[in-house]
Amino acid sequence: MGRTNNMNLTPVEELITEDFGVPGSAERNAYDMECDAFIIGEQLKAERARAGLTQEQLAEKVGSKKSFISRIENGRADIQISTLVKLFHGLGRQVCVRII
Question: pTM above 0.70?
């Protein structure tokens, strides 16, 4: 492991590679997808709270179920972009997708 800074700390990317494999491997792809789901869930939770809505209120507003909102916020739902857009539009927010 390469410790490249003056505090003798290991870069996060090296730790992730050690635990979940190199980018492109099946295990690493699964890890990356879980991270993305977590980030989306946390963002939805924060925006919902900012809008002053409960999960149930948001679900009703966008024609969904509270349990689905909960699964997204907990990073346990694989959602389509159209669903993501609908949820955030229900919160008065826009979605921007960037490919990097």
Answer: yes
